[in-house]
């Protein structure tokens, strides 16, 4: 007789862990994983906060770069994080 896992989790690793935990039981002969992913809804300002963080990081990196213009040539010197 085949068994089925049912329910909802937020992350795929949780779904996979449930499958691994039950699959190893000696009485389980067949198993289908019907657990669905239901991510936690993020707050409305997450997009704004991510954009602000990216802009701040770019500004910090830009301060480490010097620009020298000679005629029609622009030379950038400095270091940035990988």
> Which shape, going by the Cα principal axes?
elongated
The end-to-end span amounts to: 53 Å
Hey, roughly how much beta strand do the residues contain?
Answer: 25-35%
Estimate the mean pLDDT confidence: 87
Strand runs, count: 4
Estimated helix fraction: 25-40%
Q: Mind summarizing the main beta sheet?
A: 2 strands, parallel
Number of domains: 2
Content-based structural category? alpha+beta
What letter string, H or E per element, gives the SSE order?
EHEHEE
Over all CA atoms, what is the radius of gyration? 26 Å
Q: Give the count of helical stretches.
A: 2
Unreliable residue runs: none
What attributes characterize this protein structure?
35% helix; elongated; 2 helices; alpha+beta; 82 residues; two-stranded antiparallel sheet
Structure description:
A two-stranded parallel sheet has the order 1-2. A two-stranded antiparallel sheet has the order 3-4. The radius of gyration is 26 Å and the shape is elongated. Helices cover 35% and strands 34% of the residues. With 82 residues, it is α+β, with helices and mostly antiparallel strands. The protein has two domains: 2-37, no CATH class; 46-78.
